[in-house]
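Researcher: I'm preparing a figure for a lab meeting and need a structural model of a single chain. I don't have an experimental structure, so a prediction will have to do for now. The sequence is pasted below. Please return the structure as tokens so I can convert it later.
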Amino acid sequence: MTTSTDRMRVLTGDTPTGNLHLGHWVGSVRRRVEMQDTHECYFLLANMHAFTTRADEPEEIRADCIECVRDALAMGIDPSRCSIFLQTEVPAISELTYLFSMLLPYNRVMRNPTLKDELKIKGMEDNHSFGFPLYTVGQTADILAFRAHAVPVGEDQVPHIELTREVARRFNKMYCGVPAKAPDEEHESLGGVFPLPVADVGRVGRLSGIDGVQKMSKSLGNAIYIRDTAKQVKKKIGRIYTGHDSRQPDEPGEIDPEKNPLFQYVETFIDDEDLVSDFRDRYSRGANIGDGEVKVAVSDAINHLLGPMQERREQFSSDDDVIDILREGTGRANSIAEETLALAKEAASLKFFNRTISLQGL
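Model: Understood. Here is the structure written out token by token.
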């Protein structure tokens, strides 16, 4: 893999909680695939973050890491054009997490709306590990360790990016002499170690799950996975409840497609613009159209998308091949992260000597 120093650097990733699904694809992975030829890309497997809720499942987390890489490769991530790496094998991230935790008040971390929503959805408001809120700080280190300029994310992750910007801003001013009122975009040119990254939200910031309520998530059981067969996809799409088919045929009145979660799938996955327009027009007028007709078209479109992904996935059936890809990507990631850590430690008067990191086979 070759990288160009004049390219903007991108960092994003996933917590390995199981196989990737369509929410990952439309929210972030599709954008990653698009950026591989135009940006210097680093894609992280946040396996330590997975321990915040699954510390008693180490073997499962390890297996999920392998599966996530397979899914990412199937979706079009190319290890010859980017670096895919393991969070736990880049020690600079942990060191920066500890340092950055000194720059953030505890109550600021707990005000993060994404963190609060996760605690509520997972029923952990009164029973979570100390590491759970710490992972919010860790996400800032994931990004800043690579001095990333952009972070492809779903809209629910935007508060994390804003917290990252706060950390970078505070570090640059406290330790690098960047003026207090310096514009964010000038921090690097004024001597700051860290650029202030921007959130690069995909065309679909939040894909609803098949429950039609929460965002698509494995933990909520409302996801369509890229490994799902055509039959499974059709069955899952059929479960989306809209309330439309419960209306009697002779009931008058228009129906707003925007209030129907099925129409997000129509506009996200059906490429035929004329068909999308026809569905929207007939549906909004209350014309003779049922959810069943729409669901068939959505299922066909999703299966058309997933077919090539599933074929590519078969090319990476060997765990050893996946681990080799991770080793190579992690080696490149350590090179950048160690450079960043050295700059940060020097700025904060923590650097006493140089060190090197090397990876060895099993």
